[in-house]
Amino acid sequence: MRLKIAHQTRYQFAEPVSYALQQLRLTPKTRRGQEVVSWQIELEGGKEEVAFVDQFNNATQLISIEEGARELVFRAVGEVETHDQAGIVGEHAGWTPLWLYNRKTPLTAPGPTLRKLARGLGADFEDDVARLHGLMELIGAEIAYETGQTHAQTTAEEAAAAGHGVCQDHTHVFITCARLLGFPARYVSGYLMMTDRVQQDASHAWAEAYVDGLGWVGFDVSNAISPDEKYVAVATGLDYLDAAPVSGMTFGHAQEGLDVSVQVQQQ
């Protein structure tokens, strides 16, 4: 399947900004199950300072704002050829050692709710993949998908205790529990083609766990499936902060508005 993607992020400032630096992870990976056919990123109100591949093998750009600008716009547009691999990405690659993906972060530190959830999974599964699918189903049953109740700083423990969240929260909870069960796990940010709409409010997120003999395998708790040809992976990391599409800082006291538009459709 060939997917056409258009992702725009627009910052608007009430007053001219003297300095801002944004980090972009908006270029998809070419890896098993997906090949980038074409991709370009356009800027308005800013310029690229440096581009590099980070420790998690993510294509990354640092963008500075033009002095005095009141608007900063990033547009990522391109096409990606995808194939259904039943969620299997394959063996580990990149500079970060596999053992690091067992490390907890502030967003994925387990508390009593998550430890109880992981213990409740049981051990009656024929193999590791079935066990991880069981974990995905358990999290989906315990934590309802509900927008407007969490934010980017919500931890996995907080979302689990509250019993609701969005794809970011589901992913953090899965990662935390998978690590408790002994699986290296990582966060994936990317895109999902939905069947009922082209226009979306945000990109998507899911988890990958490392299974001996298979390598990395994807699990999307929010949709209760392993990623197929409708998914495009962009960035990976220990949690959301490592894989966020756009992050950064702004100096000054001007009020800031943010508008995000994502379109994913079959070409």
From TrEMBL:
Annotated ranges, domain Transglutaminase-like: 159-223
InterPro entries for this protein: Bac_transglu_N (IPR013589), Papain-like_cys_pep_sf (IPR038765), Transglutaminase-like (IPR002931)
Record-linked SUPFAM superfamilies: Cysteine proteinases
Name assigned to this protein: Transglutaminase family protein
Organism: Henriciella mobilis
A matching Pfam family: Transglut_core
PANTHER family xrefs: BLR5614 PROTEIN-RELATED, SLL1049 PROTEIN
Highest taxon in the source lineage: Bacteria
Source organism phylogeny: Bacteria, Pseudomonadati, Pseudomonadota, Alphaproteobacteria, Hyphomonadales
